[in-house]
């Protein structure tokens, strides 16, 4: 069986999508207002690849266009009290399409702080259909969820804003510390399964 050699313009188009994804992730941390942490140097090549810097250009030309899935895993260094861990993962699938953004905090149990930071982190991602006013409703939902973790061991919830489906888990580590994870994906249906129109409404 012979494998079809991809046409040059197809490879160029796929490579351009990869580069656009890379630049989106690279600039995301700078757009996110989170001075409580410092981000390390951005990895040019996503996981699971490990490429020597001198091979980056060759890898970008030969391999980047044809990956079926990859992710950038970012781990920040906390520089302020109250934040013990902050990680983020950007995942992409076939055709270089966005699949998921996951933000994971380990911090003091402060609903106001966590709701604000997570909402701003999702806003900074500028995903499909996002409107600036969406941040207020998202903040309220996140605040309610984290606040419910007070006195309980774990809270889970789902919330849709436009074409974005947000899922949150908040788990107590102690009476004053929690691990909060927010996962954002794209969706074309409401939580009840109804289809969304071009404006992201039912």
| Share of residues in strands | 25-35%
Total count of strands:
8
- Tell me the Rg in angstroms: 19 Å
- Helicity level, as a percent range? 25-40%
Count of individual helical segments? 4
User: Biggest sheet, strands in spatial order?
Assistant: 2-4-5-8-7-6
Class per helix and strand makeup: alpha+beta
Q: Which stretches are low in confidence, meaning pLDDT under 50 for 5 or more residues running? A: 1-5
Quick one: biggest sheet?
A: 6 strands, antiparallel
The shape, in one word, is globular
What is the ordering of alpha helices and beta strands?
HEHEEEEHHEEE
Mean pLDDT, nearest integer? 90
Termini, distance in Å?
47 Å
Give a written overview of the molecule.
With 202 residues, the chain is of the alpha+beta class. It is 30% helix and 29% strand. Helix 3 (111-125) packs antiparallel against helix 4. The protein is globular and about 55 Å long. It has 4 helices and 8 strands; from the N terminus they run H-E-H-E-E-E-E-H-H-E-E-E. A hairpin with a 4-residue loop joins strand 7 and strand 8. The strands form 2 sheets. The protein has a 6-stranded antiparallel β-sheet with strand order 2-4-5-8-7-6, covered by helices on one side. A two-stranded antiparallel ribbon has the order 1-3.
Task: Describe the structure concisely.
Helix content is 30%, strand content 29%. It has helices at residues 8-31, 56-62, 111-125, 134-148; strands at 37-38, 70-75, 77-78, 83-92, 98-108, 154-161, 164-172, 177-186.
């Amino acid at each position: 069986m012979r494998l079809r050699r991809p046409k040059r313009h197809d490879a160029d188009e796929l490579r351009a999508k990869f580069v656009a994804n890379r630049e989106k992730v690279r600039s995301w941390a700078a757009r996110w207002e989170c001075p409580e942490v410092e981000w390390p140097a951005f990895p040019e090549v996503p996981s699971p690849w490990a490429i020597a810097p001198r091979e980056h250009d060759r890898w970008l030309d030969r391999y980047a266009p044809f990956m079926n899935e990859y992710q950038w895993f970012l781990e920040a260094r906390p520089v302020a009290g109250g934040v013990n861990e902050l990680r983020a993962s950007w995942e992409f699938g076939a055709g270089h399409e966005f699949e998921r953004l996951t933000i994971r905090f380990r911090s003091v149990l402060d609903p106001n702080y966590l709701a604000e930071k997570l909402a701003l982190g999702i806003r900074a991602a500028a995903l499909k259909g996002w409107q600036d006013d969406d941040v207020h409703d998202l903040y309220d939902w996140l605040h309610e969820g984290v606040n419910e973790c007070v006195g309980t061991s774990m809270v889970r919830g789902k919330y849709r804003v436009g074409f974005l489906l947000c899922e949150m888990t908040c788990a107590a580590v102690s009476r004053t510390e929690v691990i909060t994870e927010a996962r954002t994906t794209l969706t074309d249906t409401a939580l009840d399964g109804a289809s969304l129109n071009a404006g992201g409404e039912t």
